From TrEMBL:
Keywords: Iron, Iron-sulfur, Metal-binding, S-adenosyl-L-methionine. Its cofactor is [4Fe-4S] cluster. This is His-Xaa-Ser system radical SAM maturase HxsC. InterPro entries: Aldolase_TIM, Radical_SAM_PqqE_MftC-like, rSAM, rSAM_paired_HxsC, rSAM_sf. Transmembrane segments: none annotated. It comes from Sphingomonas agrestis. SUPFAM superfamilies: Radical SAM enzymes.
Amino acid sequence: MIELTLPALAEAPLPFVARLRTRRQDDAHRDDAFLCDEDDAGVTFAGAHGLLAIDGMASAALDGDVVLVQPDGGRVERLLRAGSPHNTLLVTERCDQLCVMCSQPPKKTHIDRFALLEQACLLAEADSVIGISGGEPTLYKGQLLSLIERIVAARPDLAFHVLTNGQHFEAADVARLRNPLFAHVLWGIPLYARDPGLHDLIVGKTGAFARLEQSLAHLVMSGARIELRTVLVQDNLAELPALARYVTTRLRFLHAWSIMQLEHVGFARNRWAQLYVNHSRDFAPIAAALDHAKLHGMPARLFNFPRCTVPEQYRYLAAASISDWKRRYVETCGSCREREACTGFFEWHPDAATAGVHPL
């Protein structure tokens, strides 16, 4: 697993953002920190905020990374890793839903890092797509939209993929979201079932389905691009074909529909036996949903589904969706000719749930 947080010491007393560089380059920025020393224990950089010593990593692995330095905590967060397509910024850990499978269980407290995250985005590599996640980012909708507006105005080469529960968009947002700046945003929104009661049960919030429908209406009025996300659990497996019919009749404006396998972390860790679906044993409901989506021209994809566990005719839909920093392959994947195109497994996926994996 790639480490995203590293122990560090900094001269500066307050948090700051820096881009780490092993040598000066043509696009030098005032927030760059340059390598000044390296040994077996780690590396030392120097920049506008003074010296920064990072343990446990070689300079070559950090070159170009945009980091958030937290002197009080004695650590740096690698917010934007150079060369990675899987950079996601956590804007809050608060959330107003309590999904049964939540991979990032919410907290009641919120630390406002918007200014620092904006500063980091302005240092991003050219043409980057930056993920924004939570918690629920739109609990701070005003700050979030302002952040996107300012960054895209300054860096029109950047784009964002924002994960949101879709509970907070209102009619008053439509005019603002029609700004062409928001054409740089893809909104990733979860919907788990066509039945309102089942969706509300899964997200732990009464009325969530109805409120989501309202938000989707506002978003489509604004011309927003929307990716619908459906995490597979035992409760919604049989309902997938009905959800496919709903998606293809009521939500034809979607950019894509992603059906996602469960992640063994957060709330799902202790509920694994009640939630996890072994799709290699019962793929029929998933196949029916995919067939219906294809028949009606709805782009559907499979996220977090290892390719060898998917019937051959649907294998092309299984995207390499797991972020590089938390992806692993099991031993038998070593000789697989499709490994590079395969999502593999989450680092914390139970070994017992990899039974049946075989090289293609």
